[in-house]
Write a structure and sequence with these properties.
Layout (H helix, E strand, L loop, with lengths): L5 E2 L9 H12 L16 H18 L5 E6 L2 H13 L4 E5 L2 H13 L2 E6 L23 E4 L1 E2 L4 E2 L9 E4 L16 E5 L10 E6 L16 H6 L9 H17 L2 H20 L6 E2 L11 E5 L3 H13 L2 E2 L10 E4 L6 H18 L1
Parallel strand pairs: 1-13, 3-4, 3-5, 5-8, 8-9
Antiparallel strand pairs: 2-10, 6-7, 9-10, 11-12, 12-14
Helix pairs in contact: 1-6, 2-6, 3-4, 7-9
Length: 359
């Protein structure tokens, strides 16, 4: 196998080497059957075993039982911005707007019905998530939607709010730390950051929500119908789901989500220390340190010219994907589950060396 570099891309992102190796072999020959996993019928017993094990392992990792369904949907988290209000927005819904993605979720909700923005940090360029003391919740809302980690702006909610119908977009930190799913009505996220390739949206739905579900134009857009069909109202992204299964196995072997959280804390600390000890050469973009993301570490250099040089020089040192999101600029290092500690050590060392030469 050719040498792999450190890919700090925000997504699609790195996958564990072990997962890629197993999935590549299975793509050619699944369990000695003479055909690959991507060639299996989604109605056949081979794929049925895959999806059953994926559901079982997902529930085990998240610590949930029969109260919630596990769905493997398509269309990206962006499609769920519309599907969630399409299904569950009956009277009004609350949205916390803390960054690029929660703003888009709220805009899609508004297209479906009455949306109340409980608080927004847009006036300060989303440099933090609004604090609970700022929220103006509607006690009659059908649900409360939050984004637990804002990929673009590099901050997260250290703890999730309590709400009877909490909806959480966890796309950029799904299974990077334990999730209190017992307190969440609907948890969702695109797979292409921590869990697998683009094309699958892992969705966890509390079953009592179905009683509140509206009629939708097609079963394809119905959470209940997808649950009843085991995510197979139409042909699902079979190979993507198989890779998710391999990632779930990998996470189990690593010790589960609490163990992954400790590793991710260690990785993020290396880079944040490089920022904080740079005498101001690097400036973090998040105004509340307790909210700093463990997945997407955002910071700026003294000039755009130095930023460009930083990105190009890092690439020559086998570290890629560091350019910030197109609307905000700067640097963004995404340190998802598959990024090894050694990658963060390499980046922190490079940052110190670059700053000492350019200061």
């Amino acid at each position: 196998m050719s040498k792999r570099i450190y890919n700090f891309s925000a997504g699609p992102a790195m996958l564990p080497t072990e997962v890629l190796e197993k999935s590549a072999a299975t793509l050619l020959d699944y369990e000695g059957k003479g055909f690959g996993i991507a060639e299996c019928s989604h109605r056949g017993k081979e794929f049925d075993c895959v999806i059953d094990e994926a559901i079982k392992r997902c529930k085990s990792l998240l610590g949930i039982g029969d109260s919630h369904d596990v769905l493997f949907l398509q269309g990206g988290a962006t499609q769920l911005f519309t599907l969630i209000p399409m299904n569950f927005l009956n009277n009004s819904a609350d949205y916390l707007v803390s960054g690029e993605w929660s703003k888009k979720a709220a805009a899609n909700g508004k297209a479906m019905g009455n949306v109340n923005i409980v608080a927004s940090s847009e006036s300060t360029n989303f440099d933090h998530a609004p604090q609970p003391s700022e929220w103006k919740l509607n006690p009659e809302a059908d649900y409360f939607h939050v984004c637990s980690n804002e990929t673009v702006h590099g901050h997260r909610l250290p703890t999730l709010p309590k709400h009877p119908n909490l909806v959480v977009d966890a796309s950029s930190e799904f299974m990077a730390r334990p999730h209190p799913v017992q307190d969440i009505a609907l948890l969702y996220g695109g797979a292409q950051k921590n869990l697998g390739p683009a094309g699958v949206v892992l969705t966890i739905v509390r079953k009592d929500l179905y009683a509140k579900q509206k009629k939708v134009p097609t079963k394809l857009w119905s959470f209940k119908d997808q649950a009843d069909a085991k995510s197979m109202v139409n042909t699902p992204p079979t190979f993507g789901i198989y890779i998710l299964l391999e990632v779930f196995r990998w996470l189990d072997a690593k010790g589960g989500l609490a163990a992954m959280e400790k590793i991710n804390e260690q990785k993020a600390k290396l880079i944040y220390e490089a920022i904080d000890n740079s005498n101001g050469f690097y400036k973090g973009t998040v105004s509340i340190k307790e909210q700093r993301s463990r997945m997407n570490i955002t910071y700026r250099l003294p000039s755009d010219e130095l930023t460009d040089e930083f990105v190009k020089t890092a690439a020559k040192n086998e570290m890629v994907g560091l350019k910030g999101y197109r609307t905000v600029g700067g640097i963004r290092a995404s340190t998802y589950n598959a990024m090894p500690v050694e990658g963060c050590q390499a980046l922190a060392s490079f940052m110190k060396d670059f700053a000492s030469k350019k200061s």
